[in-house]
């Protein structure tokens, strides 16, 4: 047996050839590489940058966009919301903002992160409790 665990030397050569074809994990990807990965043209990615404040890839010295893993995750999320779930741009932006807020509240409750900017989770809970109480009073009034 060889180092790759293959008995036939011809198979070993084929396995090595296949392993070399896989692209290496990179820290930064170009806009065209991201476009190919997520099957979205680069001009759409540039448009999404204007529409979604959370999508802000860094630019290198030449001014070319360099996408990192977190940026790729954002692009995939935006693509899924728009193309698979049928959200509008405005709706997708709102959904991502709500999801991010929920994640911040969960992280705050676990003590892993500082409180989210603006209203704290506890203050939001108090406001929601107050609104619920007022709605229940209105229901009793009209019942």
Notes on the structure:
This protein is mainly alpha-helical and 143 residues long. It folds into two domains: 9-112, Multidrug-efflux Transporter Regulator, Chain: A, Domain 2, CATH 1.10.1660; 116-143. The protein has helices at 9-21, 31-38, 42-51, 69-84, 89-110, 121-142, and strands at 58-59, 65-66. A hairpin with a 5-residue loop joins strand 1 (58-59) and strand 2. Helix 4 (69-84) packs across helix 5 (89-110). Residues 15-23 and 111-117 have low confidence and may be disordered.
Keywords:
Multidrug-efflux Transporter Regulator, Chain: A, Domain 2; 143 residues; 2 strands; mainly alpha; 2 domains
- The first-level CATH class of the largest domain is given as Mainly Alpha
Biggest sheet: strands side by side, in what order? 1-2
Major sheet attributes: 2 strands, antiparallel
Relative strand content: under 5%
Domains, number: 2
Oligomer classification:
single chain
Topology at a glance:
Elements: H1 9-21, H2 31-38, H3 42-51, E1 58-59, E2 65-66, H4 69-84, H5 89-110, H6 121-142
Antiparallel strand pairs: 1-2
Short summary of the structure?
This protein has 143 residues and is mainly alpha-helical. It is built from six helices and two strands, in the order αααββααα. It folds into two domains: 9-112, Multidrug-efflux Transporter Regulator, Chain: A, Domain 2 (Orthogonal Bundle); 116-143.
């Amino acid at each position: 047996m060889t180092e790759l665990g293959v008995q036939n030397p011809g198979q070993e050569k084929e396995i090595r050839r296949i392993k070399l074809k896989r692209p290496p994990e990179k820290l930064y990807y170009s806009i065209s590489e991201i476009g190919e990965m997520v099957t979205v043209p680069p001009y759409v990615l540039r448009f999404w940058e204007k529409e979604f404040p959370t999508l802000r890839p860094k630019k290198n010295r030449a001014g070319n966009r360099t996408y990192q893993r977190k940026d790729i995750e954002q692009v995939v999320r935006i693509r899924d919301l728009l193309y698979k779930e049928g959200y509008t741009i405005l709706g997708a932006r709102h959904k991502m903002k709500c999801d991010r807020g929920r994640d911040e509240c969960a992280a705050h409750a676990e003590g892993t992160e500082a409180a989210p900017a603006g209203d704290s989770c506890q203050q939001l809970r108090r406001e929601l409790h107050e609104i619920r109480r007022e709605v229940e009073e209105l229901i009793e009034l009209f019942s």
